[in-house]
Amino acid sequence: MTDSREVHDNLLPALRRMQDKIDGWADVIAHLPFDDAKTERETDRIVQKLQQGYAMIQLAAGAGQALLVNVRDENMGHRANNDTENEFSVIGPKTGFVENLTINMHLLRQQIAVPQLIFEETTIGSLSRTAVVIAYIEGITNPQIVETMRKRLKGIDLDVVYDSALLEQVIADNSNTPFPLFLTTERVDRIAYAVSSGQVAVISGGSPYVLSGPSTFMDFFVSPEDYYLNWISGTFFRIIRMLSVLFSLFASPIYIAVLTYHFEVIPTRLLHPIMLSGLHVPFSPVMEVLFLETTIELLREAGARLPAKIGQTLGIVGGIVIGEASVQAALTSNILLIIVALSALASFTTPIFKMANTIRVLRFPLILLSALLGGLGIVVGFIMLLTHLLRLKSLDTPYLVPFYPFRSGNFADSLVRSSYQYTTNRALFLNPQRKKRYKPDTVKEDIDHED
Amino acid sequence: MRTKLLLGMLTLSAMLLAGCGNANIVNRIRILVAVGFDRDGELCKGTVAYPNYIHRKGSLAIMKGTGNDPKLILQHLSLQTPRKIRYNKINTIVFSREIAAGGITRLIDTVARDPSLGGNVLLAVSSCSAEKVINSLDRQELENSPYNVVQQNIRDGNVPLSNLYLFLHDYYSEGKDPSMPSLRLDAERQIEVDGYALFKKERLRLVLDTPEMTLFEILLGKKVKGEVPFTYKGELFVMSIHHGSTRLSANMRAVPAAARFEVRLNGGIRSFQGNRIAKNLFEVDDLAASIEHQLMEKLVALLKKIQANGIDSVGVGEEFRSVDRHWNAAEFYRNVYPAMKFDVRVKATLKNSGAGE
Amino acid sequence: MSYQASLSKTVSPYLLWFLIHKSQTGIAVLDFQCKIAHGAEQDSWVSVLLVGMSMHLVVLLMFYVLKHAKKGDLISLHVQLFGKWLGTLLNGVFWLYLLLFVCNQLVTYSQVIQTLVSPDIPTWRVGLVFLLLFVYIADGGFRVITGLSFWFVLIPSLLIITLFIPLQYADWRNFLPVFNHALPDYAYSAERSVPLYMGAELLLLYYPFIRDNAKAIKWAHIGVMHSYLLYGIFTISAFAYYNLGQLKHSVWPTLGMSKIIHFTFLERFDYFYIFNWIFIITPPCCLVLWGSARILRFSTPLSGRVSLWVTAAIVFVVVTWSEDILAVGLLETISRYAGSILLYGYIPFLALCVLVSNWIRKPLVSNAG
């Protein structure tokens, strides 16, 4: 708990130096090279502080009181590097949040340097007594949102807050949903952006993930890199990401529906490869798909649990050997192998891991529906999904904003990431108190056609 | 509680629905692609081709069945196979001339009412027996199906645009008679288009040969393309039509009523020094005039031939219907059409089209 | 003046556009062309448009009527005008009409599925799947249904672009000669095109859930206009693509048109149209279920959720029973007559009643306002 170097290098020499002339507590405090040194009377408080790593000094003269000096080791047990490990980006800062609340607050302050950035601290957890901080910018964030978040956090009664992900689930508007209702991220720039656009961030002690809300469905498909590239490439990659979501959700269900029910839609020329590759497969397409999808889920799950180096080998072994062997053994068709592998790949393009997981999970009900009812099942599944999304809310804000309720003002930065000329407004559905983010560029000199 | 109820209902419905309709799994069915119909005494004989993936790696195989109705033929075929037969992907239906002359209402009606078929199915008449045409597909690739032969020619403008939809369109039309391509086997047992079959409602009346087919296509005006031969100063030239248009207009007031065809052709002459003559300022008008004149005569002759057979494959009646507020199909074809005069005007524009001098 | 539900339950006025338009489109769009063709033949597009334009008048009347309802909807208005007993009876009749509406949609759609997609799937399975879906949606409340209506206007609209392909086969002479039919022919076609516009009357139920509803009439008119312009496109493309003989012989011309479409990656595009129609029938059916559950809730001691399930169960029974082709036709005819009477008979009558009661009992209305 205590930083022994602090004690040996600073505290003890200072005490030794002032051996002869001690009149009272004030004298001691004046000589100690520590800011956080206070006297304390109550035993409870003393116990609490000792547990946090303070050093206690007692004087023979000043009985009933003790001086508590803060010599705790802030970084003990924490990692030294704070690179983002799971939300990597090639361009842009690579620092991420760590397990230390103070550092996290500091990291956020570095990006938002105005005094209006407010940190409100509360304690949650009957056993862990975890410090949880609500961060927002006064004058931008709508007070109603902050109030809702405060109320939600106050209502929590947990024993140990292991991670902010726990908080996220407890304060979610609807707990019966596979969708994450709050953005959780380890990237500082993401949280800085969220806070600056009028959202509330919640930093929890001991968690490298910071959550922010109210979030919308689109937020989970936005990568900070979109903003670091120029708007044309940024938009392109964002649209690719959205399409890959659709692909990973619907590719295998469509395969099942077409091969089981609607073989007419296969073009005659495509019939040949499909028939030849799947001719000797003894299972129905559903069984085939379920077999392969489960295999991929197993690989992913095993890869995530294993140490990084073994994980890579496993990926190769699983991907190539199992896939190749199952085609050889006529358990699956080549074409399905391609589809399943591609849809797994596509599901990994989602920048927020939780959303990527959701998409992987949602594939299975869709597969079942398409196996039961064919194309009808896929459409019914799609409508169910859409209805579910329409019913969701994050901190009382509709989840599908700006598509529904339709907010034309927010389209500058949703499906398309427009040029910075046009993204001068904050997201309007958050009702920020100041709507303008910045003034657009001064008009640059154009090529003159009139000379 | 509510969600549990809902989940329960969903599982229940899933269980109820499970196990229904696995009939169409693609690698457990036999997919027919082409069918030919022949008369076989009292019955109708159907010959079908399907890609055989098990023994032949996808090259076509043949089956035969007989019955009074397409559905009965299908039943007969089904009795011969270990796999279910599905005919949803048929893209070619061939009738022998014998059947076509006797009327194809029953067959067409079954096809038209069956929603399993798409609109792009090729209907064709065969000069030899349909069985022979389909038999020639044995051990061939799907690529060589009559459908692709005809489609390729439709795209190039050698055969008028024709498919199931257009046939039905004309079949139900009051002022136009249907038509379809005619196929035959040549000496090497290759399928070729040998003409264009004109129907009176459901009965085959007349088969045009290939030069007439091109002219017929020009008259239809949907896609004017193709090669037109003509003579100029004793030499044979061929004009390639790149694009053109045909406007049909009705003249009701004239006695007898007249139909006017205004044909505009844009094309070039590549064969035999044609482009040299076309470049010659003094000769090009003569050249064009001779095309126009010869083409006009041929078109009028074709129209007369169609008229003499008592059919209206070009759709003159349709044009009269659209301008005459009191048009009556029966009366028109009894009194007006047989005596109708055709006024064909051709305007040919030649473009430079050769690289050599 | 006009009543409005609590703010958190209402939707923006512009959504009335999508609600009105989406509640009108339904299963009738698949086959109206061949039905109207028997009347004014190539001129029937006139009837379609005229009936559509008459809907402006109906909307006007509905807004007038609703403005004077105490609770802003038909349920309260009936009780208010005709007293408790007669009012509840009329609500019951309206409830039956709504059931008929949703049964007609479901039964006809399951016919489409059975004929065109899989012949071996029984009606009750289709009905069950759809009713579970509808109940899930309607359970989400009015805002969710509105959201779906919004999305399901946008998504199927993309398919209109593909009409371009069948129109390459169009023969525009099919519309000639114009206007050579007598008035009864137009009337016949008009009567047959009423089912296209049925569903607008649902406004009588969801009116209080529109924010600033008295001023929202502009959006209602836009919605109606959207409907008849869309139907105009469908009518004209079907009449250009088919000739009359073909049209009279076909069953679902709108689907038939899609049969000619094929791409190199997708040979049969008609499946897209068939499944797309789920998007089209879902919002009106959900609105109807939601509305009829509301009627039950106000007229009986049942709670909202229970009445939703009860309604769905009754619909399911009717759908299961009417499996044969005659029952489908009967259902369609009854619902057409009922819709025509409601839109052009009962709503004007209601307006008259409101006018008279305003005139006689002025003080009562001023209290209500």
From TrEMBL, chain B:
Record carries keyword DNA damage: no
Residue ranges occupied by any Spore germination GerAC-like C-terminal domain in the UniProt entry: 194-354
Segment forming the signal sequence: 1-23
InterPro entries linked to this entry: GerAC_N, Spore_GerAC-like, Spore_GerAC-like_C, Spore_GerAC_C_sf
Keywords: Germination, Lipoprotein, Membrane, Palmitate, Signal
Keyword Membrane: yes
All residue ranges annotated as the Spore germination protein N-terminal domain in the record: 24-184
Main location: membrane
Coiled coil: none
Membrane topology: Lipid-anchor
Subcellular location: Membrane
Domain of life the protein comes from: Bacteria
Family of this protein: Belongs to the GerABKC lipoprotein family.
Name of the protein: Ger(X)C family spore germination protein
Organism whose genome encodes this protein: Paenibacillus glycinis
From TrEMBL, chain C:
Classification via Pfam families: Spore_permease (PF03845)
Keywords assigned: Germination, Membrane, Transmembrane, Transmembrane helix, Transport
Keyword Membrane on entry: yes
Cell compartment(s), UniProt: Membrane
Transmembrane intervals: 45-66, 86-109, 121-138, 150-169, 194-210, 222-242, 271-290, 302-321, 341-360
Topology relative to the membrane: Multi-pass membrane protein
Keyword Transport: yes
InterPro entries found in the cross-reference section: Spore_GerAB
Family: Belongs to the amino acid-polyamine-organocation (APC) superfamily. Spore germination protein (SGP) (TC 2.A.3.9) family.
Record NCBIfam families: 2A0309
Name of the protein in its database record: GerAB/ArcD/ProY family transporter
Organism (species): Paenibacillus glycinis
